[in-house]
Amino acid sequence: KKLIFGFLSLMLITIPLSAQDAKSELKEAEKAFSRYNLDPQNNKGELKTAQEAIDRALSSSEGQALAKAWITKGDVYNEIATQIITIRQLNMGDEAELPQVDNPPLHAMQAYVNGLEKAEKKFETKDALKGLQMVQPNLSNFGVFKYEASEFEAAYEDFQAVLAAHETLKAAGEASSLDDPEELKN
Description:
globular, single chain, mainly alpha
C-alpha cells in the first residue's frame, strides 16, 4: 500500500511540473527570440537559445498541446530560414553562426500547421495563418537552392509544402504568395 501511495504521490507531483517546464521553456524561447529581434546583428546567439528552448518546450505532451508553442517554433525556424537565404543571396555572413537545423522552413511550415490545428483563440489562428504566409517564400527559395544543387526530391518536398500552405491559406480565406496565376504556374 505504501508503495502504491508513494507512486501515486510522485505522479501527482510530476505531471504539473512537466506542464510548468513546457510553459517556462516557451517563455524562455519567446524572451530569447525577442532579444534577438531587438538587435539581430549583435544577438545572434539568442536565436540558437530560442530554437533550443522551443524544442525543449515541444518535447513534452503539455508543450505540444499549446498552439502558442507551435507558432513560436514556426517563427523561430522561419527566421533561421530567412537568415540562411540572406547569407546565400548576399554572400554576407556565416551560416555556421546560425542554429544548425535541417530544412528550417519546412519545420516552420509544419509548426504553423500544428499551431493552426491547436488554436483555440482567434489571435492564435490569425498568427498561424500569418506565419504560413511568411514561410511560403522561404520554402520556395529553399526549393530553388535544392533544385540548383540537383537535389530534386528535396526540392519537390519544399515546392509541395508551398502548395500545401497555399491550399491552407485559401481554405481560410487568406492571401497567398501563389495568388498570382503566373506564380502558381511557376
